[in-house]
Structure of Ketohydroxyglutarate aldolase:
Amino acid sequence: MGSPLARFSVTVDDGHLAELETVASALRESGMEVERVLGALGVITGQAPADARPSLLAVPGVTSVDEQLRVALPPPDSAVQ
């Protein structure tokens, strides 16, 4: 069985902003399920196997690949507040 999926935010360098869809296609080929392409920010979000980070980082135009962490608060009636 493959690695569990993780959510990632990928930052694209300024030199590749005009080619954002090309970068998104290359990320898909590297195993990422692209969910959003945020052109104004130069960020692409989606999910991929947790161990795919190095292959996503190797895509031309990618400057960083950051895992999106989830934060959850306990319910208001919980003993932990």
